[in-house]
Amino acid sequence: MTPPYIADPDNADTRSQERDNLALDVLSILQIVRRRIPLILALAFVFAVLTAGYSLTLTPIFSASSQVLFDPLVRQPFDDPNRPNRTGQSSEVIDSQISVIHSDTVLRPVARDNNLVDDPFFGEGRPGLFSQLKSLFTGNTQKDAATLEAQESATVEALADATVVKRVGQTYVISISAESPSPTQAAVLANAIAESYLSDQKRQASRVSNEAASQIDDRLIDLRERLRQAESDIQKFKADNKLQSSNEGLLLTEQELSGVNSRLIDARSALAQATAKYDEIQRVLSNGVDAEAIGDVVNSSTISSLRQQYAQAARNEAQLLAELLPSHPSAIRARSQLESLRALIRDEVRRIAESTRIDLQVSQEQVAKLEQQLDSTRGLSNVDEAASIKLRELETEAQATRQLYEIALSRAKEISQLEQVVLPNARIISPATPPESPIYPKRKIMVILAGMLGLVIGTILAVSGEALRIAKRRLLSEFPVMAAPSAVLAEPASSPVRLEESATGTAGPASKLAQLRVSRRTQSLKSRDATPELREVAKLPWLSQTDRAGNTRPLSSDAISAVQETIERFAAGRKGPNQRFAREVDRIVTDILKTPVENSARISFLTSPTLGHGQTVTAFALALSAAQRDLDVLLADGEPKQRMLSHDLSVDPDEQAGPLRDRVTDYEELGISFVSLVSGLPKYKHHRMNIREAFEFADIARDYDLVIIDGVALPQLADDDPLVGLSTNFLVTVAEREEGQISMPILARDLLTIAGNRTAGLVRTMTGATSPKRRKYA
Please, what is the average pLDDT of the chain? Predict the structure, then answer.
């Protein structure tokens, strides 16, 4: 932002004068308002009284509210608990119910039951005097149905406008408010609307149940006819295709085929057993009938008895042979008995073999016959297979129709028996009561707002009137002067004629206005001539350096080391190329030390119009020069843009985050103390101390003989800055080469305004040479 004083001086004076006039205008407005306070208050009182009187003529409107709880979680007694609730729990359900309450279906019965068509607030009301006189001459005319319908519809619309339905928070509670001139009627209407809504819900449930029952009855008739026709088609198809069913629901051919197959399986099993038995007997016969070789296959009680006798005879023979000779008669008789039993066993086995052969032949013949019968039955079954497919289709269709018919019949009976057992999902939880106070008009608020409006209008009228008078006075005063400017300017202000006319009071309007114009011009010239000027404290030349060739030229590198060397050389009494710079710095320090001390702290604040005027180098040089006088010096960096002191003195930002006293760093090689007021803060942003920081800084300043503050630029400096309040003197540095671009009167006025009754001075820098490089000298 360009400082206001870095511009053409005449334009800068004009803008300053405009700001002064603006401030005077604001003060004038405040004075006008203070003078016109009685008029403004009177106008506000009139507005309030008129509004209060008007509010008394308004018809009061009362509002009564009833609350209805709509619970979508209510389940009917015969609902399936596993089936999800179709009503839902979303906010759209409540919004839908609000629309239903506000609908014609709910409000029209309320209008009819309460005869709102004849109500003055909702309908046409009772006929007036003019209407009654008109009826005497024209007779009573009956209104047609269309007119009555239109009047009732208009009444319902009026009732809808007077009804407010809204949801209470995020709950399932619905508030129904009705407005009416009568508090009792408002409560009655609110309760009537709630009751009408509940009745409408019951009517809707009953109507839905009746419609469902009617539709189910119609569907039952159709299903019954379809079932009868399907069963008739089945019977006719069976008769046409000679298909007979058993008790198990199978066709006779299917049942017969199943029986033959079962018998064939049993016959084949018996044949297998007979064949095995016959083969075993033939094996015994082929190997010779031996009682020891007959197995369990020849299962006969006779064989078992003969085998026991044969075993006993064999034991007797063995005993006799052991005691007697083979030729002994007893041994011969035992041997004969044994042979007789063997012959009997052989004969019995042959008889059993013949019986087994006969059984085998019978089984074979039975299996053959059953196989023939199975083939015949299978042929009949194949013939009926196509007819069976069609029959199954007819039976499936009939079965499906029968199931639908049974379900519909059961549902119809359930609806007819349970249609009255329905729990309502809405109920009134808070009936409306007659309100005590109306909602309209709000007389207190109206009166207060009217009074405030009266204050605003009164203020505008007072200021506007004064502004018009001032504008009129200025126009009247300037018009004659513009008409004859040469006469006014040609005549001197101290003319005897003018003095005489002024003394005698006989001067005309043009003469008085001319005198006033000349007086204002004179005051303006005097005020311009009286513009304060800054006291020049010193002129700091460019720091110079000597190159390798021994030539002296302006310093273009870092000035910190050069300043330190120059100040130390001057303090030691040695001459050097920058002796004039050190002498001027010492002169500034002497001037600062002459400043009266306030609160035991001497604080010098340095500023400049913009960057590049040598402010930082000057502050550093002043601190070093004061330190050479054995003074305790504190150098503070308060310049937020470049922060050269904090950078060149290698201040660690992490160490500048604690209390202000802990951030003070002592530099023994320089003989000064340093504190950064801007380290760690956003760059290019002026940080203004708070009250606590200001007190802390003032307490630190008391420990030093001199405090030098490298402050912000003058355009960003405000007189309420805590650092400004703590400072005892002010110095502004202005580069000589930039002085032609700066309005020095405005610069002096701004600095002196901030300084007040404290000392302020000007330090011209970079005099006597042109710098090839200026960044580091900022």
Answer: 76
**What pLDDT, in 10s, does the model give residues 356-369?**
788 888 888 888 88
Distance of CA 88 to the CA centre of its chain: 24
Assign residue 119 a region (left: φ > 0; alpha: ψ between -120 and 50; beta: otherwise): beta
43/63 Cα distance (integer angstroms) = 34
From residue 111, alpha-carbon distances to 98, 108, 114, 492 in Å are 18, 5, 5, 93
Q: Are 639 and 592 in contact (CB under 8 A)?
A: no
- Picking from 197, 117, 191, 214, the residue whose alpha carbon sits closest to that of residue 157 is 117
Q: Tell me the C-alpha distance between 122 and 297, whole Å.
A: 116
DSSP track, 455-496: HHHHHHHHHHHHHHHHHHHHHHHHHHHHHSHHHHHHS-TT-H
How confident is residue 109, by pLDDT bands cut at 50, 70 and 90?
A: very high
Residue keyed to tokens 């909702």: 122
**What is the rounded distance in angstroms from the CA atom of residue 479 to the CA atom of residue 485?**
10
Count of CB atoms situated within 10 Å of the CB of 655: 13
Q: For residue 776, which phi and psi values (nearest 5 degrees)?
A: -75, -15
Cβ proximity of 613 and 747 under 8 Å: no
Q: Report the Cα 270 to chain-centroid distance in Å.
A: 89
Q: What does the radius of gyration of the chain's CA atoms come to, in whole angstroms?
A: 65
Q: With a threshold of 0.70, does the pTM exceed it?
A: no
- CA 418/CA 36 separation, integer angstroms: 83
Q: Which two tokens stand for residue 310?
A: 């044969």
SS3 (DSSP) at 527: helix
Amino acid at 570: F
HSE-CB of 15 using CA atoms within 13 angstroms: 11
Structure tokens at 24: 């005077």
The answer to whether the peptide bond before residue 541 is cis (omega within 30 degrees of 0) is no
pLDDT band at 177 (very low <50, low <70, confident <90, very high): very high
H-run or E-run covering 56: helix 37-57
Cα–Cα distance measured from residue 100 to residue 205, given in angstroms and rounded to the nearest whole number: 14
